[in-house]
Amino acid sequence: MAAQKFVDLLNEQIGHEFAAHQQYVAIAVYYDTLTMPQMAALFYRQALEERDHAMMMVQYLLDTDSTVTIPGVGAPTNSFSDVVEPVKLALAQEKRVTDQVNALTAVARDEHDFASDQFMQWFIKEQVEEVSSMSDLLTIVERNRDDLETIEEYLRREGGGSQADDSSAPPIAGAGA
User: Fold this and answer.
1) What is the dihedral of CA 29, 22, 146, 162, to 10 degrees?
2) 132 exposed, middle or buried (CB, 10 Å; 0-12, 13-18, 19+)?
3) Domain boundaries, the chain
4) Would you say 45 and 162 are in contact if contact means Cβ atoms under 8 Å apart?
5) Which of 9, 42, 106, 125 is 20 to 30 A (C-alpha) from 156?
6) How far apart are CA 105 and CA 124, in angstroms?
7) Residue 49 near residue 169 (C-beta atoms within 8 A)
8) Could you list the pLDDT tens digit for every one of the 177 residues in the chain?
């Protein structure tokens, strides 16, 4: 069984991941309304990824016979002043999640909960990739804020952040159902 302090924080993190899911859906919808299908698709994928992260955490708690508590989340930001603001918000969110993942890992280590520490390692790697890709996207969007077609072309050319399945990823609750 996982350390209770870790379990409590991981249950909180599940809420953060679901909140990120909703925020990315709101961002995707914003870009959809601007007829930016590449940006919309990127953030719809990001939303699914955040949902999957929450469900990975749920599965881990189930696997360790820990109590799972699904917290409520606040409403996402739905209005943006320009095409740059949602990406800035997304980058800030990814940096915040990185801090949360690091804090979870620190608690696991402090509690000598080595299984939970190992579980968190995948999320550490994932956050490095997320912050890097969102930083790159912010650079492109800031540089081309008045040229939406160039932003869309960049995502078409770069693959829009689509990733192959990661065989090292933790299992997702409900994925086998």
Assistant:
1) -90
2) exposed
3) 4-160
4) yes
5) 125
6) 9
7) no
8) 899 999 999 999 999 999 999 999 999 999 999 999 999 999 999 999 999 999 999 999 999 999 999 999 999 999 999 999 999 999 999 999 999 999 999 999 999 999 999 999 999 999 999 999 999 999 999 999 999 999 999 999 987 654 557 888 898 888 776
Tokens representing 129?
């990739």
Distance (Å, whole) CA 105 – CA 131? 18
CATH number of 4-160: 1.20.1260.10
- The identity of residue 125, as a single letter, is K
